[in-house]
Each structure stands twice: as C-alpha cells, then as structure tokens.
Known about the structure:
The structure holds two protein chains of two kinds.
Chain A: H1 2-16, H2 19-26, H3 28-47, E1 51-52, E2 55-56, H4 57-73, H5 77-87, H6 90-94, H7 100-131, H8 139-163, H9 172-184, H10 197-204, H11 208-211, H12 213-220, H13 224-255
Antiparallel strand pairs in A: 1-2
Chain B: H1 2-21, H2 23-51, H3 59-79, H4 86-91, H5 95-99, H6 105-110, H7 117-130, H8 137-163, H9 165-168, H10 172-187, H11 195-203, H12 212-219, H13 223-248
Helix pairs in contact in B: 2-3, 2-7, 3-7, 3-8, 3-12, 8-10, 8-12, 8-13
Amino acid sequence: MKKYFAVFNINLVNSLAYPAELVTRSLMILLFMWIFYQLWRVTFAASGSDVLNGLTLRDTMWYLLLAETLELGRPRLARVISQQVKDGSIAYLLNKPYDFLLYQLSSGLGESLPRMGMLFLLGGALTWVMAGPPPDLVNWPVALVALVGAWLLHFCFNALIGLAAFVSEEVAPYEWIYQKFTFVLGGMLIPLDFYPAWLQTVSKSLPFAYMMYGPARLFVQPDPALFAQIILGQFVWLSVLGGLLLLAYSRGLRRLAINGG
Amino acid sequence: MIRELKFLLSLWKTNLAAAMEYRATFITQSLGMILNDGVYFLVWVIFFDRFKDVRGWELADMFIVFGIAASAFGLVGMLFGNAFNLSEIITGGRLDYYLSLPRPTLLHALASRVVPSGFGDFLYGFISYAASGQFTWDGLARFVLAVLLAAAVFTAFLIIVQSLTFWMGTGGTFTMLAINAMLTFALYPITLFNQAARVVLFLVVPAAFMGAVPAGFVKAFSWSTLGLMTLAAAGFLAAAILLFHLGLRRYESGSAIQTEV
Lengths: 261, 261
C-alpha cells in the first residue's frame, strides 16, 4: 500500500504545484452553475410551485453542483491508458514492481482530489449566493460515502475504455458516448426525479444512476432507504465492472507485443 | 483571391486523403460523434417532455439550435481543424513552418488539419434539423446559409481567443473555457437570459450567432436577420484577422526543429 500512497502523493503534489492553473481550469463550473440556475429558476417560476418532484430550487442547484464536481473532477484516465497502450509506454509501467491498475487508480485519485475540491469550492460559493446555503452538514458524510463508490465506478469504466485500445484503433468515441450516458441516464443535467417513471426505472437498473444521481441526491436529501439502495447498487456494479476490468486487463496483456526499447 | 481558394481546395483535398488513410478511425469517430450528439440531445427531449417550454422556447426550437451549432462546429473542424489548437501552435513555436512559406500564415495554419469527428457533427446537424418537424426545402437552404455564417463567427471567435496567447504566453485552459462558454450559451434557450446577458451573447461571447439568431432565420426568412448575421460574421472575422496579425508581431520563434505532417 505504501507505494500506491506514494504514487497518490506525487500526483497530488503535481496537481497542487500550479495553483493558478488549477483555479483557471475550475472556473468552468461557474459558467455551468450560472446557466443551470437561469434554466431552473425560470422552470420553477413557470411551474408556480416551490417544490417539483420533491426537490426545491435550492436542492436542485446543490444536486447539480455535486454532479458537475464529479463529472469535471474525475480524471480522464481512458485517454491516458489508451495513449499508453497505443504508443507502447505501457511497457515502462508493466515492468515496475506495482500493479498497473492500482497504479492508475492511485495516480487518478491524486489528480482528481484537488480538482474536485477546487470545483466544489468555487461552484459552491456561487451556488450559495444564487440559490441559498448548502445542505445540512449531517448530509455530507452520507454523500461522501456514495461519492467514493461513484468515483470508483467511473474509474472502472474509464480504465475499461482505455484498455479497449488493445483491440480497437480508436477509443475516443466510446468515451464520448459513455460520458453522454452518464449525462442522460445518470441524471447529471436533470435530476432523475424529473424523468418519466419508466425512464427512472430503466436508469436505476443501469450503473450510471449510481455514478451521478446517487451521491448528488443523497447530498440534498439523505434517506436511509435511498442510502441502502445506492450503496447496494454501487457494490453490485463495482463487482461486475471490476470483474470485467480484471478480465479485460489479463486478456489485453496477452495481446501485447513489445519489440525492443 | 482565386489563387488562395485553389490553395485551400488543395489543402482540404490533402487533409481528406490523410484522414481517409486511417479509414477505421475516420468512420468510428464520425459515427461515434453522430451517436454522441444524439444521446446528448435526449436530455432536452426529457426536459421538454416534463416542462413543455421555457418562456416560449420549445423542443422544436432546440432541434434547430442544436442542428446549427453541431453543423457549424463540425464544419470548422472539417475545414479549419487547427482553429481549435492555434494556441498550442503559437506557444509551441510551430508558426515558424507557416511563416516560412509563401502563403497567408493564418489561413494556412488553420486549414492544415482536419478533425475527423467534425464530419459526424456536421451530418448530425442536418439530422437534427430534419427531425425538428419544421423541415421545408427553402428552410434547408436557409439552414445551410445559417450554418456557414455561424461557422464563420465561431472560427473568428476561436482565432480572437487564441490570438491572446501572443500576449498572455499561454492559452490552453483559457481557450477551453472560451469554447465551452460559446457552446453552452449557444445550446441553451436564449429566452433564459436578461438584456445584459444578451449583450454579452451578441458582442463578447457571440453565442447568439451560433444558436438563437440563425435558428430564427431558419424558421422564417428575414432580411434584417440575414444582414445581422452577415455583419457579425464579417465584423468578427475582420477583428480576428487584425488581432492575429497584431499578435504575430510579438511572436518569437524558439528555433525548435519541428516536423509538420
């Protein structure tokens, strides 16, 4: 574990080494939150009600903040891994005394944490000004647990897409489509509560809802039954995707041909 | 002028041939982008299914706006692919190559790359217009004209933003922020924004000319809208060319050895 902590630490320090760059990159969330606020303010006003499908405008905005933080803050590991496979630099990682996938997980987490922190800080400040104070502090640890599960699910998907470079010349389209599935079926741009019932059922039977909707919904309205449902869903999908990832990795290694150095 | 047009045609022909050299990548990226855009648009289908309209802005309007923005974005990628990474070219000292050749530097640099996924975006725009339920043949002619003018404004905006690199020394993150702002504002209903925000959308981040204004023109012909779009395209292009050439005076080569392929 010590070596993975070292990898995590190096990437964390790297991310914090250029604070101006970190802040500039995170400014994107201000744009998104402002535009979301315009959309939902008008939508709530037009409905003539303060509560829509159990969510207030304030809930909706803090829900969207957490979902955006997760989306913008997650590392683009698919690109990194596919590039390593394509240009052969994976060979330099495989001959080191660590597990390739755990290495990627540690480095991705080190890169992701400061970015997510900064996104949440900036976006949270604007959301507070526009929509009101954040949810109760007691909601935070509940959401944090689900956030960890969501991040790991993202990692599994991203690593699987990256490893697809072993068999596919181009993996970028898989990443685009995966991202759009998290937007739509994960409820990233619209909380799933606003979806028609049949689509909510479909979404909740797929992993995407546990990667976005789960932590974001628990953040604004934690509910023991929902918490149990989200954690169970994350556990099931982590087992499935984790298993697939290990299988894809071992198969990929068998296809790998390294010539010289 | 004719000489430069012939030069552009030869460049585009060569770019297309180069893209087709990696046929699988080209087809995967194009089809992947069509699917990506289609899945993304489902968010708006779900939204308008639940909330019907946003201050009079309906799903049919979104189909047209999305169509124009996607086709214009794709067209810029197809014809002037380097418009997306002009900043990198400037900071990397790669303008040396274009400066040393007897052709207009900016035009040559912009048209020297094709983004394969641009073909997918370009085609998807037409699909989106066809699906809007407002398709007519004369509307299609207006759609094509609107896409051309929107693409001109978008190209100009990309050049303006990235020409600032000559003064700032770096511009990658700023460019990403500007592109996101342009696309996000273009793809949201303009009825959301108050007068002050609309001034910004017409003059600073000219997203209105990539979304709402051309969409209005596609729905109903108007000389004043056509005049406004033409004026905006000409004005922003003139400003872009001027700014790039002013910046070029500050350009310093690193004398690095570069290979342009």
